[in-house]
Amino acid sequence: MKVLALVLVLVGLAAASPSGPVNRDITGAQVIRVNPTRASHLYYLHGLFMQDLYDFWTEPRAVGKNVDIMAQRWMVPVLKATLSKVGIEYSVIIPDLGDLTEKSKIANDRALEMAKRRNTNAKHNMDWTAYHRLDDLYDYMDYLAETYSHIVKVKTIGTSYEGRDMKMLKLSNGGFRKPIVFIDGGIHAREWVSTATVSYIMSQMVENREDYPFLDHVDFIFMPTINPDGYEYSHTNDRYWRKTRSKTGVFGCKGVDPNRNWDFHWNEVGTSNNPCSDIYSGPEPFSEIEMQNVRDQLNKYADRIKVYLTFHAFSQLWMYPWGYTYALPDDWVDLDDLARDAVDSLTAFYGTSYEVGSSTNTIYPAAGGSDDWAKGVAGIKYTYTVELRDTGNFGFLLPPGQIIPTGQETLEAVKTIGSFVASN
Ligand code: 0X9
Ligand code: ZN
Questions:
Q1: Which CATH fold topology does 121-423 show?
Q2: Furthest-apart CA pair in the chain: how many Å?
Q3: H-helix or E-strand spanning residue 385
Q4: What's the rounded mean pLDDT across residues 313-325?
Q5: What is the C-alpha to C-alpha distance for residues 271 and 277, in angstroms, rounded to an integer?
Q6: Probe ligand 1: pick from 312, 320, 398, max atoms within 8 Å of CB?
Q7: Distance 315 CA to ligand 2 centre (A)
Q8: Among all residues, which ones are annotated catalytic?
Q9: Closest ligand 1 atom to 242 CA
Q10: Tens of pLDDT along 174-231?
Q11: Which of 47, 101, 173, 368 gets the highest tally of CB atoms within 10 A of its CB?
């Protein structure tokens, strides 16, 4: 009897987890915006964040910076009461996340349908008016390889936990051992605009090669989604899925935060040992096959990669290491200078503003990120994590109409980086 009771408690706990074993129920869930106006608020919110009871869409960063917290329906009153008790003001920015998510799915499905109808290319359905599924992206990469075979190679660098291909596109117009800019996206499944932006930049640079003269001196490697299982799952089951889909622990909770899984100061700070947490670092460093695969490519080209860019969403931040400590790398001024030049180009396009700084000092300490590993272990000097649009109005549900503007302005930043590498 006691055993049965324990099992029931454990099952209950698992279901209560924000990133629990089955689809998280977002019916009636709310996103609550909090503005910490004192250091004590920040401290309190950080404690709440580490409890893993809620899904923090933006994490406590600094006094005066909004924190957006998603609470499932049954936790909403608890969160509101907690905040009121400690005197932190809040407002509800999404009153029914289930409803909004459904509407946004309908809008994206319609946009996909229209894209398909407009399309005249027999080989692929890809465009940037909607968020596409993995198949469309991969068909497009294969199409680029076939159509631009003199400058493009597409390779499957391995498979994911669930057996999906992991495709990488190399753009090179020849030459011997040119410097490389390596760009990835989609490490966090729900950050769809990241995958879309990387594929947009890839598409522009391949299909309009002559507009990018730095390509005579620099090669590019693109991996638009390095967490394909998570990406697909966020389309089919849980729009807010962040992690990989590996089976790791008790309660049937799945997945590891792939950006806590890299073997550099692994699990030291800003991570969780709870397999149900969205920031679970994994049972060991590089437990995730997808991160092993990307690591192997970064290692393979390490001596030629001058810049590593990894795209996330959202908050509009251009960040450099370190993520595991408040200390800055010795050469932080170089990284800061290039980041500011890139952001100036980005902002000049549509006026979108970005913050620049080291990730710990800009958001929060979090160890085990790919950016830290790329610099600290692979020895790549310029490594950046970029949080794309927006600052929270739409958050993860950035409307498809913003994909192209986001892609255009980010391409400006990448052009600045490409020119920098070409002339150094
Ligand atoms: O926490 C993360 O992994 C990134 N933010 S997100 O909201 N997209 O999840 C920031 C990572 C910054 N880099 C490191 N901490 N190394
Ligand atoms: Zn992310």
A1: Aminopeptidase (3.40.630)
A2: 73
A3: strand 382-388
A4: 98
A5: 9
A6: 312
A7: 10
A8: 387
A9: 9
A10: 999 999 999 999 999 999 999 999 999 999 999 999 999 999 999 999 999 999 999 9
A11: 368
Q: Nearest to residue 14, comparing CAs of 210, 218, 225, 277?
A: 277
Using most ligand atoms within 8 A of CB, pick from 243, 363, 372, 391 the residue to mutate for ligand 1: 363
Task: Please name which of 22, 128, 124 lies closest in space to residue 400, comparing C-alpha atoms.
Answer: 128
Whether pLDDT at 248 is above 90? no
**Could you say which DSSP state residue 253 is in?**
-
| Cβ-based burial of 209 (10 A; exposed 0-12, middle 13-18, buried ≥19) | middle
For the Cβ of 359 lying below 6 angstroms from any atom of ligand 1, the answer is yes
Is 56 strand, coil or helix? strand
The predicted structure's pLDDT at residue 22: 43
Residue 145, number of CB atoms within 10 A of its CB: 18
**What pLDDT does 251 receive?**
73
Give distance in angstroms: CA of 258 to centre of ligand 2.
Answer: 9
- Closest residue CA from atom 12 of ligand 1: 359
Domain ranges for the chain, please list them: 11-99, 121-423
Average pLDDT of the chain is 93
- Mean pLDDT, to the nearest integer, of 74-98? 95
The DSSP annotation for 334-362 comes to HHHHHHHHHHHHHHHHH----EEEEHHHH
Residue 360 has pLDDT above 60, yes or no: yes
Question: Which amino acid belongs to residue 171?
Answer: L
Q: Rounded distance, CA 261 to CA 42, Å?
A: 26
Question: For ligand 1, is residue 319 a contact (CB within 6 Å)?
Answer: yes
Ligand index nearest the alpha carbon of residue 357? 1
Identify the band that residue 280 occupies on the pLDDT scale cut at 50, 70 and 90.
very high
Indicate whether residue 385 lines ligand 1 (CB < 6 A).
Answer: yes
Q: What's the 185 CA to ligand 2 centre distance in angstroms?
A: 9
- The superfamily (CATH) of domain 11-99 is Metallocarboxypeptidase-like (3.30.70.340)
pLDDT above 80: residue 324:
yes
Ligand 1 atom at minimum distance from 366 CA? 15
The CB of 372 under 6 Å from ligand 1? The reply is yes
- State phi, psi for 184 to the nearest 5 degrees: -125, 165
